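Notes from the 1:1 (GR / supervisor)

We went over the backlog. Supervisor wanted to see one worked example end to end before approving the batch request, so GR pasted a single chain during the call. The sequence is below; no edits were made to it. Supervisor asked that the structure be written out right there so they could see what the output format looks like.
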Amino acid sequence: MLSCSYIFSKTKYQRCKDTNFFSKTDFSALLYQKKEVLTFIPIILRIFAIVKTEEAIQRFADYITTERRMAAGTVHYYVRGVEDFARHLAAEGIFDLDEVKPRDIRQWQMGLIESGHKPSTVHKLLSALRAWFKYLRHQHYLDRDIMANIVSPKDAKHLPIFFREQEVEHIYDDIYPDTFDGQRDRLILRMLYETGMRRSELAGLTLASIDTTALAIKVHGKRNKERIVPIENELAHNITRYLSLRQQVTAALRAEHPEYEEPDALLISSNGKAVNDAKIYRIVEQYMKQHSHAERTSPHVFRHSFATHMLNEGANIDAIKDLLGHSSLNSTEIYTHVTREHLKESYKHAHPRAQKNRR
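Structure output shown during the call:
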């Protein structure tokens, strides 16, 4: 159990010997203190609980970052979920994790649903809480699985959204400004579609990640797992041309600003700064909203399109799993449902019997 570092006694703070905030013996001793001192005991207890909980959450964040190798976005989401649950407990007057019951978690879960959170969001927040309590057991703060009987809400399975092949063809047209940033945008869209990378993975590429001679890109995915993604000659030539332009931009910036330090990132803007994943998102939205009728036009739709189009062309699903960096084939199999739907639609529009039955 999370414990306080010190405990209030007759004359001074002394270390707490057991795993609770206050041992029964020490607390009994406090009953002999002056009445006005006893008034502060609940306040002191809460302060210790809040401080120690914050420290434990920070250690939890460090643990899932270094030991579990979770992505920065996942770590942020998990910490936010645990903090929200901690606030819920505090509002209920619960400051000792030994007092937490499954009903407290269900109450929090129902609060999320009633406040309008989607089942998928509640599912993710409960996953964060499972990881938190698992960590506490691992660190011997708890000796029971509070989440054992907590059931996540069912979420309707949604098929991935993808761009039609004719929509993707527009990224190879001359739709970009004749500037360095325009040529960089062309490369971003092509790399997303031709490699299936996540936008965070693309933003994380460095100059050392690219090997145009071997026609390969070294990608660091979720939990810092590394994979090699092959590329075609044409994309390699595009990367080479971009690198030449990039070198001109950085050379000009160094000449104008001697203090300028060139970033290691592959993708930069004309101001010399590295392109982050938020910038990639805006770039994709800017171009694809003009050329696609898809419900969403985010960078991840290119990832879905990569997998779907590969399957439509007969690629092996295990190979696609490795290219996408999925740890489980279950994550990749969702695209087989997409291709089945695609085949059904193709049949309805092309087969003579299907057309006859529609009449």
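Supervisor's comment: Residues 1-45 have pLDDT under 50 and may be disordered.
Batch request approved.
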